Amino acid sequence: MKKVLALTFIFIVASQIFLFFIYHRGGDKGIYMVAEIEILDEELYRRYTEKVYPLVVKYGGRYLVRGGEAYTISGGWQPERIIIIEFSSMEALKECFGSSEYKAIASLREESTRSKAIAVEGIGNGL
Q1: What span, in angstroms and rounded, lies between the C-alpha atoms of 15 and 20?
Q2: Residue 31 CB neighbour total at 10 angstroms
Q3: What region does 57 belong to: left with phi over 0, alpha with psi -120 to 50, or beta?
Q4: Is residue 127 helix, strand or coil?
Q5: I need a labelling partner for 57 at 20 to 30 A (CA). Which of 8, 65, 95, 125 fits?
């Protein structure tokens, strides 16, 4: 009986330690770029997206939302297109969008869309 209780105790402690690290692993918060886009020229925008996607990936970015249906909850906001990209840090995001590679294609976005974008820090794994 003592052996069963000891093994149960060890299992409970080990699982609590595991859960602690899952939910509190070093404060990884992530940085999220959120953009609202109105497409003015489909062809130019397609050329831009073909070039920006591999660039974002190169700098560690990960697309979470690329368009898709949006449901208005309040305020009458009805964006044509929303983009959300996750980066590991603000530095990685700034390196990506400040790079000479991005600057070379930025005019495609500027000419093909009307857009607004921000970067915001996430809350990490904690609640």
Answers
A1: 9
A2: 19
A3: alpha
A4: coil
A5: 125
Number of structural domains (the chain) is 1
Residues counted in the chain: 127
pLDDT at 7 over 50: no
**Does residue 16 contact residue 62 with C-beta atoms inside 8 Å?**
no
The verdict on residue 109 lying in a domain is: yes
User: How far apart (Å, rounded) are the C-alpha atoms in residues 30 and 122?
Assistant: 5
Q: Tell which residue, 68, 86, 79, has the closest CA to residue 113.
A: 79
Q: Tens of pLDDT along 53-94?
A: 999 999 999 999 998 888 899 999 899 999 999 999 999 999
Show the domain range for 36: 31-121
| CATH code for the domain of 100 | 3.30.70.100
Identify whether 67 is part of a domain.
yes
Give the pLDDT band of residue 3 (cuts 50, 70, 90): low
Residue 8, H or E segment: helix 2-23
